[in-house]
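User: I'm putting together a teaching handout on how sequence relates to shape, and I'd like one worked example. Could you take 2-nitropropane dioxygenase from Sphingomonas piscis, show the sequence you're using, and then write out its predicted structure as tokens right after it?

Assistant: Happy to. First the sequence, then the structure tokens directly below it.
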Amino acid sequence: MGHARLEELMQRGTDFLGCEVAVLGGAMSWVSERNLVSAISNAGGFGVIACGAMTPELLDTEIAETKARTAKPFGVNLITMHPQLSDLIDVCGKHGVGHVVLAGGLPPGGAIDRIKGNGAKLIAFAPALALAKKLMRSGADALVIEGMEAGGHIGPVSTSVLAQEILPSVCNDIPVFVAGGIGRGEAIAAYLEMGAVGVQLGTRFVCATESIAHANFKKAFIRASARDAIPSVQIDPRLPVIPVRALKNREMENFAAKQREVAGLLDTGTVEMAEAQLQIEHYWAGALRRAVIDGDVESGSVMAGQSVGMVTKEQPVAEILDELMEQAAAALESRA
Ligand SMILES: Cc1cc2nc3c(=O)[nH]c(=O)nc-3n(C[C@H](O)[C@H](O)[C@H](O)COP(=O)(O)O)c2cc1C
């Protein structure tokens, strides 16, 4: 009975995504590539490629390689500030990618039209109720609300508060997926009961057997508890940086130094604010690569959400999804 109720609650989400369980594998730069993305989709969830700073050529290859590994639907996450955003959208269009997720700020109007013109569905992040409504008016087909418990770049508000503020007002009009801090199925059941059509998880998939993250990166996740995943600190009030949640390590000092360097460039007029912010983003991409790919978990950035405490071992994606669905179904059954 729990499983039937779970299926019913996820129905709008699974219909929208075209998969079996309404769980998006949140795009994670360097981690969400062909192997993990296809494994999530093959296991019945919805994998999402993290384009990050990839060139259009690299994205083209990544999509083709993912298609070679799964016949199931998957999505592509693009960052709005990427200088070649239009070309990246066209690469998705060329491959007939059904769902494009736009991250990193409000999507420019031209990007929305281009994505929809290619026949894809647009999923956008809504960091507040007013912005959720604005995104709906602008043509978003679904929303993700992501709380500050999440790994990677974060907003200031927790998942539980965003869910209460946004779900009751918009959940009948647009499918909403909840992200940030979800480590077990009981939480999935709760957000579905509040009106979400599904969820997005990142941290929980990092230690999947199919994830190419370096063994050191996975080990750091398995050892860490929730309190180890802390947000970065803004050093200079003139240089607003979006906080990033990652495991505490030496890299945090590197980031402080990088902020001082970029703030200095701003002071001397060597760079404008947009360029300064782009430099910070490039810093993150490099620091994350050092940790995920090279395994340098001391001077690289080990981005992780607070749910990292619930990551206890390496296990196949299918097992992770089964566990989550069993927990969610049991929770729903016990409440019936
Ligand atoms: C290592 C890592 C890298 C991430 N990179 C991205 C990214 O490139 N683009 C993006 O939109 N979100 C990124 N995220 C956020 C995830 O897509 C997802 O929304 C988030 O992990 C969900 O919260 P959780 O970590 O509590 O499960 C990243 C998260 C992690 C842990």
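A couple of points you could highlight for students: Residues 30 and 289 are 6 Å apart (CA to CA). The mean pLDDT is 96.
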